[in-house]
């Protein structure tokens, strides 16, 4: 073991370095270290024998006991110094450890281990490397350490100052940064008081802790010229490269722009090079988004701060059989020692090999037990990546997983906003298709917001339509309007008649005549514009006179009060029968709608399908089912049959609820039920202007025409509507449809949903539609099932 002497020839020069930043006088002295050996010389052990030998040698070099001002003194006693330093640098760790001996509170050493000298010190002994602290902080730290040592040595007050100092220095071989934490041991530093020891206040400890590193407030209490630091500081450096890189990666990846900003991305790559000690390592990150693979690597453009915009887009199918697919499916990292030696490479792997990559590591990125992407490390050197790197890799993968997930979440939020702005609410089953349309447009043009997207069309889907409608709702509404208008006209006539009785004015008699004309007209027939005409007449011709005729006497005033009390406060008209009608319609619609929503939720779990519902005087619902609606496109041979059964069972349940509700309504209303069968599949297109799906193509338009007119259909040769309260009408046009639905009705009869008598009826031609027939059965179900019928429908269909 032989130490390295370095530094200036005149150690007094060090005493003047940065005296403005560090005002205390420091002196180099080996006496505290020699005293350590001298104390050990008293023992009768082998260690004591060694210490006595050292003590004898010291007697021959008394100049080592005083203040040392020249490096020649130390150089003259190199061998003895090496022995003395074994107290701080164990010989067994001499070659591996990083350590140096320095003047107190200085950063230039005069004795160092080989590793320290080669990596962390310059030729003049000055500590080298980058410190992640500015000069002001370093200066404050030195002062705080000095005051803490004074308090301990002179006043026996413990004040712990532990501020980590990390130095980064490039490795001479790899040129990659290595990070070291510095520990300054002051065991061999003495504090000499010059003159009388300053007296400290009782709250000195509180002051120290409150000021922390800002110890300038102690200058007056502990003047720098009253203390001298004499001895040596032992500096030990411990490598913390892995911890520092991991901490830096955590800080970097917190920033959402890190993986999409080019400089930040290259910074991540450099940190991974440092962590794995591979200077030529190249980083690649991919995110999985549906059938897309968004690939980012060291040569990505990184222009838009968006993982989608700045990544290379591939299809998942392009990665079939690659190391990427194996890593994703296996859920664990895969190492390729030499890509050039791999047989049967895929085109993707050929491209990578052509770029000069030999060693390769691909690791899946997991988030909540799902693979969301991959992290790739590439090297131009064979066997540059191996299993020894896997423990370090395991520490960084969660960090990259969170960063990728956050970027994808932000991007998905952007896409969702785009979808909502363009399409309003989209059914969850087909949302994937709208997302794909937006992504395709963004892929073509990053600034595509607001541009019309490609058509969204689903081909070969089967429609299922059903309607539960209030029987004669238009007639009932007309009767309610008629009743309210007659009531209001009669109240108005009472006012005018009382006024005419009080004062026989011809104008009042004429007004009474006009009211009678309206009463006769409305009682006979209510025309389309009568409601607005009567209300306008009453407000302008009758109500406008109330303030005037109200002074004709108590009788007139009382009848005016009765008229006003009968009006709805919000509408200003008599609204009694219409309110009863609207309340009844609303209760029917809400009952049907809520029951349908519950059943629909269960049916989605049975088979995903597109569902839409409209509520007017009744509730109609439209279902589209088919493989084209599903993102994976896998057909289910039982889905159509299951949903047709489900629809019939649910309509029967609606009929049972509606019948039970009738007796509870303010105005008894009856509900009819119809199912329309369409055997042949059709295509549907999203109409952006209407924000809804509609059939696509001239042939399929017939289906929409039938939907709009079928509730008015009558049995051929009669005036009887095919839809009747308490009965289920199934309208069809093909014999095969009748055969299929007869089978369903037979089973529903077995379950008690419908009666045994099944009518097969021919319908009168509708405008533009002919050849329709209907199966009609009486609904015998009296209590809608408490549980969802979807499971029963699936079981029956299977």
Description:
There is one protein chain. With 798 residues, the protein is α+β, with helices and mostly antiparallel strands. Helix 15 runs antiparallel to helix 16. The two termini are 86 Å apart. About 3% of the residues have low confidence.
Summarize the structure.
Helices cover 43% and strands 20% of the residues.
Characteristic key phrases:
single chain, 798 residues, alpha+beta, Beta-Lactamase, 9-stranded mixed β-sheet, 7-stranded antiparallel β-sheet, 43% helix
Helix and strand topology:
Blueprint lengths: L3 E2 L6 H4 L9 E5 L1 H10 L5 H14 L7 E2 L2 H6 L1 H8 L12 E5 L8 E2 L1 H6 L10 E2 L3 H21 L9 E6 L6 E9 L3 E5 L10 H8 L15 E5 L1 E7 L1 H14 L7 H15 L5 E8 L2 E6 L14 E4 L7 H8 L3 E3 L10 H8 L4 E9 L2 E10 L10 H34 L7 H14 L12 E14 L2 H30 L3 H19 L5 H13 L3 H4 L4 H13 L9 H31 L3 E6 L3 E7 L13 H24 L8 E7 L4 E6 L4 E4 L2 H12 L17 E6 L2 H17 L2 E9 L10 E7 L10 H8 L1
Parallel strand pairs: 2-10, 21-24
Antiparallel strand pairs: 1-5, 2-3, 4-5, 4-11, 6-7, 7-8, 8-11, 9-10, 12-13, 12-17, 13-14, 15-16, 16-17, 18-20, 18-21, 18-22, 19-20, 22-23, 24-26, 25-26
**Spatial separation of the terminal alpha carbons:** 86 Å
Radius of gyration computed on alpha carbons:
46 Å
- Helix vs. strand class: alpha+beta
Q: Averaging pLDDT over every residue, what do you get?
A: 86
Write down the oligomeric state. Answer: single chain
Shape: elongated
Q: Main β-sheet: number of strands, strand sense, barrel status? A: 9 strands, mixed
Low-pLDDT residue spans: 7-20, 300-307
Q: How helix-rich are the residues, as a percent range?
A: 40-55%
Number of extended strands? 26
Number of domains: 4
In percent, how much strand structure appears in the residues?
Answer: 15-25%
SS field, number of helical segments: 24
């Amino acid at each position: 073991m032989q130490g390295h002497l370095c530094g200036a020839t005149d150690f007094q020069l060090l005493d003047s370095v940065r005296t403005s930043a560090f005002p205390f006088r420091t002196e180099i002295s080996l006496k505290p270290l020699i005293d350590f050996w001298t104390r050990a010389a008293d023992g009768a052990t082998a260690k004591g024998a060694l210490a006595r030998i050292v003590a004898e040698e010291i007697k021959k070099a008394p100049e080592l006991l005083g203040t040392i001002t020249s490096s020649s003194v130390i150089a003259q006693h190199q061998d003895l110094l090496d022995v003395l330093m074994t107290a701080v640098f164990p010989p067994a760790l001499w070659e591996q450890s990083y350590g140096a001996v320095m003047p107190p509170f200085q950063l230039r050493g005069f004795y160092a281990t080989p590793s320290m000298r080669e990596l962390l010190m310059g030729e003049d002994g000055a500590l080298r490397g980058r410190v992640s602290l500015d000069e002001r902080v370093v200066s404050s730290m030195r002062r705080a350490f000095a005051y803490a040592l004074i308090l301990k040595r002179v006043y026996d007050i413990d004040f712990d100052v532990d501020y980590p100092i990390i130095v980064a220095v490039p490795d001479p071989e790899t040129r990659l940064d290595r990070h070291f934490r510095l520990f300054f041991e002051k065991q061999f530093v003495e504090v000499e008081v010059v003159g009388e020891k300053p007296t400290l206040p009782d709250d000195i400890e509180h002051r120290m802790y409150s000021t922390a590193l800002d110890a300038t407030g102690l200058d007056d209490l502990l003047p720098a010229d009253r203390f001298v630091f004499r001895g040596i500081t032992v500096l030990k450096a411990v490598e913390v490269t892995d911890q520092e890189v991991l901490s830096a990666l955590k800080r970097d990846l917190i920033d959402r722009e890190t993986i999409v900003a080019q400089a930040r991305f290259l910074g991540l790559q450099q940190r991974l090079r440092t962590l794995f000690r591979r200077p030529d390592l190249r980083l690649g990150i991919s995110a999985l988004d549906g059938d897309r693979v968004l690939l980012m690597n060291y040569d990505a453009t990184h222009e838009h701060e968006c993982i989608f915009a700045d990544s290379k887009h591939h299809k998942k199918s392009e990665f079939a059989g690659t190391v990427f697919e194996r890593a994703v499916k296996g859920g664990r990292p895969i190492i390729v020692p030499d890509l050039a030696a791999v047989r049967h490479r895929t085109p993707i792997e050929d491209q990578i090999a052509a770029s000069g990559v030999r060693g390769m590591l691909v690791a899946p990125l997991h988030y909540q037990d799902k693979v969301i992407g991959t992290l790739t490390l590439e090297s131009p050197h064979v066997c540059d990546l191996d299993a020894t790197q896997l423990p370090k890799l395991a520490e960084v993968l969660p960090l990259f997983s969170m960063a990728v997930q956050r970027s994808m979440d932000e991007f998905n939020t952007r896409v969702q906003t785009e979808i909502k702005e363009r399409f309003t609410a989209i059914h969850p089953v087909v949302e994937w298709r709208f997302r794909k349309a937006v992504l395709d447009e963004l892929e073509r043009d990053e600034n595509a917001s607001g541009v019309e997207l490609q058509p969204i069309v689903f081909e070969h889907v089967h429609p299922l339509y059903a309607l539960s409608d209030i029987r004669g709702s238009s007639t009932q509404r007309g009767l309610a309007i008629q009743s309210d208008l007659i009531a209001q006209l009669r109240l108005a006539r009472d006012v005018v008649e009382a006024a005419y009785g009080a004062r026989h004015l011809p104008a009042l008699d004429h007004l009474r005549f006009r009211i009678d004309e309206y009463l006769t007209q409305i009682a006979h027939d209510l025309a389309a514009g009568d409601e607005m005409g009567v209300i306008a007449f009453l407000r302008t011709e009758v109500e406008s006179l109330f303030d005037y005729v109200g002074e004709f006497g108590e009788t007139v005033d009382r009848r005016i009060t009765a008229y006003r009390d009968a009006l709805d406060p919000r509408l200003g008209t008599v609204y009694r029968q219409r309110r009863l009608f609207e309340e009844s319609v609303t209760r029917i619609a809400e009952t049907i709608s809520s029951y349908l929503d519950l059943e629909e939720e269960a049916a989605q779990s049975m088979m995903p399908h597109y569902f839409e519902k409209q509520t007017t005087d009744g509730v109609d619902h439209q279902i589209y089912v088919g493989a084209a609606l599903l993102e994976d496109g896998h057909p289910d041979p039982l889905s159509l049959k299951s949903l047709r059964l489900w629809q019939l069972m649910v309509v029967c349940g609606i009929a049972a609820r509606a019948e039970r509700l009738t007796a509870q309504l303010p105005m008894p209303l009856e509900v009819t039920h119809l199912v329309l069968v369409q055997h042949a599949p059709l295509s549907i297109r999203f109409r952006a202007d209407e924000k809804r799906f509609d059939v696509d193509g001239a042939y399929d338009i017939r289906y929409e025409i039938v939907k709009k007119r079928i509730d008015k259909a009558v049995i051929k040769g009669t005036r009887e509507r095919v839809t009747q309260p308490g009965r289920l009408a199934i309208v069809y046009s093909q014999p095969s449809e009748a055969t299929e639905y007869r089978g369903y009705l037979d089973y529903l009869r077995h379950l008690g949903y419908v009666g045994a008598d099944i009518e097969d009826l021919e319908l009168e031609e509708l405008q533009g539609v002919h050849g329709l027939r209907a199966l009609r059965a009486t609904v015998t179900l009296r209590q809608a099932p408490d549980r969802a019928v979807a499971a029963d429908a699936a079981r029956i269909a299977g």
